[in-house]
Automatic annotation (TrEMBL):
Superkingdom: Eukaryota
Chain sites annotated for binding Zn(2+): 192, 338, 342
Membrane topology, record value: Multi-pass membrane protein
Protein name as it appears in the record: Adiponectin receptor 1a
Main location: membrane
Sequence intervals crossing the membrane: 139-158, 173-196, 208-226, 238-257, 269-288, 300-320, 340-357
Gene Ontology BP annotations: adiponectin-activated signaling pathway
Compartment annotation: Membrane
Entry keyword set: Membrane, Metal-binding, Transmembrane, Transmembrane helix, Zinc
């Protein structure tokens, strides 16, 4: 009895070793390949049943089985990979849990379920826009925001010249803001759409995504500094130069390979928060020059304070991964930190546009007029 149990255990060990290779290799392909596991298990049971039967040529059969098993397993794995790619291409895929993802797709370990599998097809990636998964909210928040800012930008740039004191110059100023917003939102929704394609594509679009954030911050400074220091061209030029230098530095840092890894999430948030907080100096300068009451009312500083608070709050939630940190598995699809960050970014950019247009009207009024020798 003991001898029989021992030979059965040995057979189990051999079977588990034989089946482990394809399971591990195909694990990254997700639940689509569960059928492969079941087939492998069925073969294992057949092998187990056969091993219990007495055979005089056990040693020879084991050698032949060891020679034949590996090529068959490799062939079986290749067939399943081809089947998986074909199903993905046709859009027939299912979401998978976090622990099944390959390492290059693992970003937020508090989102436990609902992830897309690796999909080596751009057609399948763009088709996933209309499916429900962890990136659905991230894609649509910035895709809809992109449409909003394209419409706002078109409306602003095409306004008649009578609404501007220096039409060409001011349209360029507003154009810089809308260009930064459109590029940021475009890079973001594209990244969240295709980053499951492959590791190389993920890294490339993550660099574009982070560069877009820096471009949005830089573009946001341009109209605000232009109208805040409308009558002070020298400080305006100095602040614009500083912001551009810091923004370019942030873009250069974003090209660093390790910058996009989960371990550097606080670093990413810190870089962009630092770039945004560089506006404190011109804000204090403007407040002192205009007076606190005037700066926060007709100077529209209240809107800019709100915008800054929203940017900082969003970046802080993103870095700390709140609320999913406290509710693992409960915010997998909706209301996780990255989605909240996206919503706050779009809202803050719109508030910025609203504040700048009001500041523009203030500068055109009698109270904010400038003498001829101070205007550019």
């Amino acid at each position: 009895m003991s001898g029989r149990n021992g030979s059965a255990s040995d057979a189990d060990c051999r079977i588990s070793e034989d089946c482990r290779v394809p399971d591990v290799e195909l694990m990254e392909l997700g639940p689509l390949l569960e059928e492969a596991g079941r087939q492998a298990a069925g073969k294992g049971m057949m092998s187990e049943g056969a091993s219990v039967l007495p055979d005089d040529d056990d040693d020879d059969d084991e050698e032949v089985e060891g020679v034949l098993t590996l090529p068959l397993q490799a062939h079986h794995a290749m067939e399943k990979m081809e089947e998986f790619v074909h199903k993905v291409w046709k859009g027939s895929w299912r979401v998978i849990p976090f622990h099944v993802l390959p390492e290059w797709l693992k970003d937020n370990d508090y989102l436990l379920h609902g992830h897309r599998p690796p999909m080596p097809s751009f057609r399948a990636c763009f088709g996933s826009i209309f499916r429900i998964h962890t990136e659905t909210g991230n894609i649509w928040t910035h895709l809809l925001g992109l449409i909003l800012f394209i419409c706002l930008g078109t409306y602003t740039i095409l306004r008649p010249n009578m609404y501007f004191m220096a039409p060409l110059q001011e349209k360029v100023v507003f154009g810089m803001f809308f260009l930064g917003a459109v590029l940021c939102l475009s890079f973001s929704w594209l990244f969240h759409t295709v980053y499951c394609h492959s590791e190389k594509v993920s890294r490339t679009f993550s660099k574009l995504d982070y560069s877009g954030i820096a471009l949005l911050i830089m573009g946001s400074f341009v109209p605000w500094l232009y109208y805040s220091f409308y009558c002070s061209p020298q400080p305006r030029l100095i602040y614009l130069t500083i912001v551009c230098v810091l923004g370019i530095a942030a873009i250069v840092v974003a090209q660093w390979e390790r910058f996009s890894t989960p371990a550097h999430r606080p670093t990413r948030a810190g870089v962009f928060m630092g770039l945004g907080l560089s506006g404190i100096v011109p804000t204090v300068h403007f407040t002192i020059e205009e007076g606190f009451v005037k700066a926060t009312t007709v100077g529209q500083m209240g809107w800019f304070y709100l915008m800054g608070a929203m940017y900082i709050t969003g970046a802080g939630l993103y870095a700390a991964r709140i609320p999913e940190r406290y509710f693992p598995g409960k915010c997998d699809i909706w209301f996780h930190s990255h989605q909240i960050f996206h919503v706050l970014v779009v809202a803050a950019a719109f508030i910025h546009f609203y504040g700048v247009t009001n500041l523009q009207e203030f500068r055109y009024g009698l109270e904010g007029g400038c003498t001829d020798d101070t205007l550019l």
